[in-house]
Amino acid sequence: MTKEKEEAKPAVNGQALFASCAACHGQNGEKAALGKSQIIKGWDKQQVLDALNGYKNGTYGGAMKGVMTGQVATKTDAEIDALATYISNL
């Protein structure tokens, strides 16, 4: 019996995912979203991962918690990782 090859999944595009974030955070993460959030430009990958996963599981967030929880609720681990990689390189 021959094993079927698993199809390679396309890589998640962090830049494309960030497009929806840019409306509030700026094209380069240089804005305080709605004048309330921290500026995310300059964050390292782990800091971004901690924040996004924290928003998703309800353990992180201040003034923007309600907004951000909705933004990340449906993101997969791979999408969160891709976003964290992209944001950490802004």
Automatic annotation (TrEMBL):
InterPro entries named in the record: Cyt_c-like_dom, Cyt_c-like_dom_sf
Swiss-Prot/TrEMBL keywords: Heme, Iron, Metal-binding
Presence of keyword Membrane: no
Residues covered by the Cytochrome c domain: 9-90
Domain of life: Bacteria
Pfam families assigned: Cytochrom_C (PF00034)
Annotated protein name in UniProt: C-type cytochrome
